[in-house]
Design brief:
single chain; 387 residues; alpha+beta; Rossmann fold; OB fold (Dihydrolipoamide Acetyltransferase, E2P); seven-stranded mixed sheet; five-stranded antiparallel sheet; 9 helices; 24% helix; 31% strand; elongated; disordered N terminus; binds adenosine-5'-triphosphate
Length: 387
């Protein structure tokens, strides 16, 4: 079932950074810089709630004790590696599978006894699931017919939605006569046409090539803004999650590891797992020095720094940061990779290899394999993550 696409808005009551039970860690504090939009979302009413939901298949626990609150209008992405329970969480919400324990509420009411076909939701799958023998127009009319909408209204609504997804001249085509991106737009239009209160997306763009995926990400974000529809999206694509979401839920082995806004998740991951899953992370272990930070190291944590926060320089070169705030180590370049406008260095320091990423600026010294370099960073850029 990993090829369904669904949109909705989820908020983990259990694991957001502000309520994670992590003692006195500095990242318990919600990141600053919230926009008016963020605040408005936080104040919007809860639309969907998972209350201690567990789903077992025999010996396998696919989802374990998940509690979430999705707010009206939110775009929430469930992100996690294969087998972490993302799709099961979505299928539970869609009513395709029933919880073993716990309850799911929509608009404050338990939906335990409501079959999926009676849940008013739009669903989009990676495989589009368009009817191949029906034209685009007939595909779009189908959900309206099911709801008893009369022919005149159906016509108007189909015209309107075709216009909104930029497919006004494609109503007479069969799905096989459309590109992948166009088929995905029809699938989205079909999910939205009956004005569902929320939309569920499972790996919505997984079948598209990279360029088209980026274009569709922008289109989906625009559509979400226009419709203001609560959306829950399941993906294992970090970039997609970062681009589209108001908030991201990171799942691991059936549980929620962390929930937060994309920037906050990247800048202040709670655990080594999240730090590594969302971007690249240097865990500052086994260096021949004590890593210093502006904050004391809480027990059970390890220091972490993102590659773009590390500067690479010749040994003894003046550093770019304030001396009192600076930490530096010496290492040997193992590898240097050009990645378009970026240079990525792998540098051996003791028994660790640190990754540093720098924007390629003109006049900047380039280091090669075997060169001795100095790596330095600001202590304030060090984060402590759960080991
Ligand atoms: N119908 C089923 N019967 C038995 N086990 C299942 C069933 N559906 C899912 N599982 C198991 O539950 C766990 C979670 O599966 P799920 O499909 O939710 O993960 P996922 O994060 O969506 O993975 P992927 O990204 O690979 O789709 C996995 O171990 C999977 O094998």
């Amino acid at each position: 079932m990993s090829d369904a696409l669904i949109i909705a808005r989820i908020d983990s009551g259990r694991a957001s950074p502000s309520n994670l039970n992590l003692g006195s860690r500095p990242f318990n504090v919600a990141a600053s810089g919230r926009s008016t939009e963020d605040n408005a979302l936080e104040q919007s009413p809860a639309q969907i709630e998972f209350r201690n939901v567990t789903k077992r298949y025999g010996q396998v626990t696919a989802v374990q004790d998940v509690s979430l609150t999705v707010r009206r209008g939110e775009f929430l992405t469930i992100l996690g590696p294969s087998g972490s329970g993302k799709t099961t969480a979505l299928m539970l919400l869609a009513g395709f599978v029933a919880p073993t324990e716990g309850d799911i509420l929509i608009a404050g009411n338990s939906v335990a006894a409501v079959p999926s076909y009676r849940r008013d939701q739009g669903i989009v799958f990676q495989s589009y699931a368009l009817f191949p023998h029906l034209t685009v127009r007939r595909n779009l009319e189908f959900p309206l017919e099911m709801r008893g909408v009369n022919a005149g209204d159906r016509l108007k609504r189909v015209d309107r939605i075709l216009e909104r997804v930029h497919l006004k001249d494609f109503g007479g085509r069969m799905p096989s006569q459309l590109s992948g991106g166009q088929q995905q737009r029809v699938a989205l239009a079909r999910a939205l046409i009956a004005d569902p209160p929320f939309l569920l997306l499972d790996e919505p763009l997984g079948a598209l090539d990279r360029n088209l995926r980026e274009q569709m990400q922008i289109e989906m974000k625009t559509l979400h803004k226009e419709f203001g529809i609560t959306t829950i999206c399941v993906t294992h694509d970090q970039e997609e999650a970062l681009t589209l979401s108001d908030r991201i839920v990171v799942m691991r082995a059936g549980r929620i590891e962390q929930t937060d806004r994309p920037e906050a998740l990247y800048d202040r991951p709670a655990s080594r797992f999240v730090a590594n899953f969302l971007g690249e992370a240097n865990i500052l272990e086994n260096l021949d020095c004590d890593v210093e930070s502006n904050a004391p190291q809480p027990p059970g944590t390890v220091p972490m720094i993102r590659p773009e926060r590390i500067c690479v320089a010749a040994p003894g070169a003046p550093t770019r940061s304030d001396e009192r705030q600076r930490q530096s180590v010496t290492g040997i370049v193992e590898d240097m990779i050009y990645a378009g406008p970026l240079r990525k260095y792998h540098v051996r320091v003791g028994s660790s290899v640190l990754v540093a990423r720098e924007h390629a600026a003109s006049g900047q010294q380039i280091f090669r394999q075997g060169d001795t370099v100095q790596l330095d960073w600001l202590q304030s850029d060090v984060r402590f993550v759960e080991a």
